[in-house]
Design a protein that fits this description.
This is GPP34 family phosphoprotein. It is a single chain. The protein has 216 residues and is mainly alpha-helical. It has one domain: yeast vps74-n-term truncation variant domain like (yeast vps74-n-term truncation variant fold). Helix 1 packs antiparallel against helix 2 and helix 2 packs antiparallel against helix 7.
Amino acid sequence: MTVTIAEELLLLAYNEAGKPLINSMQLDPALAGAILAELAVADRVELSGKKVTLKDPAPLGDDELDATLTRIAAERKDRKPEWWVQRLKSAKLRKRLLTKLAAAGVLTEERSKVLSIFPITRWPEAQPGVEANVRERVSAVLAGADPDARSAVLIAIMHAAKLDRKAFPGASKARVKEIAEGAWAGDAVAKTIAAINAAAIAAISAATAATVASSG
């Protein structure tokens, strides 16, 4: 099965029992950033620290990617990657991606209640091979293999969301940082990584600050 970068991120963000490894304030902006990054890797948009520029409006055949591409094409004003991450991130996006993976037989949706009152949903693996393929590819890069653009972007987003240490606890911090900083990459990939990293970190920081302020 072919999965998007956002779906790969989601598979790595949940353990085998279907519980998330990071909270939604970290995961939701990361998923939004992954959507933007995929469009950049597919050469549909160009990302810089200042704006997202449409290059090619041709659809890619994925509902989430194509819907985002349509929104970018319809936006008449140049917007920063941070602006788009803020607009795209949501629990609804996360649920749509999880539901899609469940419909494809990759995950199973299990609903239950805590104390017979509070509803919870878990997403355990139904087809472990899909995540195993992603994990194998990322592990190879973290061990020293030359990264492709998709793997590098995925690692950089995991790092921004603080998922890397939980999904790959034995990975070298120096290697993760090297990939996340994009120094090894060509200019276009390096710009994409830098823009998505900055956008995800800004969105996570804003969400954390808002939570602290509301609880204070």
